[in-house]
């Protein structure tokens, strides 16, 4: 086990100490019909806005793949981080139409 995975343990004086890794089980990706995605409009500094897709339940790889497909569908850039998809610009209607067309349960959220 690499030392990078041992967060919080610096040193132990106990000669019988065995590090216990926090092995969180991988979350299985739910089917599109079981997802309850929320589409937000987030205003950043200045006049910048991004469309955020939140509450995806699944693996990071599946989230990244969905983000790539959404960016291609909107014809714009963006990123996938912290469990959410960020699409540059206000594309809420386009994202909602695309997601519902693919069988996802999605709705606009926020004010």
UniProtKB/TrEMBL annotation:
PROSITE patterns with a match to the protein in the record: SUI1
InterPro entries for the chain: DENR/SUI1_TIF, SUI1, SUI1_arc_bac, SUI1_dom_sf
Residue span, SUI1 domain: 37-103
Keyword Ribosomal protein: no
GO-annotated molecular function: mRNA binding; translation initiation factor activity
Any one biological process term the GO annotation gives: regulation of translation
Keywords: Initiation factor, Protein biosynthesis, Translation regulation
Family per record: Belongs to the SUI1 family.
Protein name from the UniProt record: Translation initiation factor 1 (eIF-1/SUI1)
Species name: Spirosoma oryzae
């Amino acid at each position: 086990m690499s030392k990078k995975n041992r967060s919080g343990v610096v040193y132990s004086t106990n000669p019988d100490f065995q590090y216990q890794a926090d092995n969180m089980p991988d979350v299985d990706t739910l089917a599109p019909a079981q997802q309850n995605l929320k589409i937000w409009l987030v205003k950043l500094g200045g006049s910048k806005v991004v469309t955020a897709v939140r509450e995806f339940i699944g693996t990071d790889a599946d989230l990244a793949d969905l983000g790539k497909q959404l960016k291609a569908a909107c014809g714009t850039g963006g990123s996938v981080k912290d469990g959410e998809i960020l699409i540059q610009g206000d594309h809420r209607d386009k994202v909602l139409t695309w997601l519902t067309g693919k069988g996802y349960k999605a709705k606009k959220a926020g004010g």
